[in-house]
Amino acid sequence: MHHHGYLWAGPKQRFDEEALRRPPHPEPPASGSRPELVQRYREVAAGFPASDLPPLETAYWLVKPRTSVRGTWDEAKDAAAWLGERLAEYAARFAFEQDRDLARISALVNSAVPRLDSGGDVSLGIYLERPSYLSLAVVTCSANRSRPDLACPLR
Questions:
Q1: How does pLDDT run across 96-134, given as a tens digit for each residue?
Q2: How many CA atoms lie within 13 A of 82 on its CB side?
Q3: Residue 4 is inside which H or E element, if any?
Q4: For the CA atoms of 6, 11, 12, 13, what is the dihedral angle to 10 degrees?
Q5: How sure is the predictor about 31, in pLDDT bands with cuts at 50, 70 and 90?
Q6: 64 near 4, Cβ under 8 Å?
Q7: What is the CA radius of gyration of the chain?
Q8: What is the pTM for the complete model shown?
């Protein structure tokens, strides 16, 4: 078991484009379906894996381009430390004062370790100024507990 880290920061309006954050349905439209339905399915099937937007379900980061992986760790504590470093890096831009609280950040990082050790994923989202959004995720891999059918992006 190992863990991959992902980071996305950008305009909140773009983050809210849920259609681009949702994977295609596992079954394509039936033959004889309306052409616009078939076309939309093809667009989503091609676009979802290539999109840099965070997926609605954390495990689906694993289908994103391997260049999306910001780090890989065998130990949960190392992956959690990366989360802490990213939170510290962005803290000055957090939109809300309470999100900057060091005790709160420390609690988030510390709570990530047992979750990752047990094979779970960690996903954090924080509003930044202007309105922007920061999405951080650490996804457990080989195999992911919630989506064991998803292959490791780096192996």
A1: 999 999 999 999 999 999 999 999 999 999 999 989 999
A2: 22
A3: strand 2-11
A4: -130
A5: confident
A6: no
A7: 17
A8: 0.91
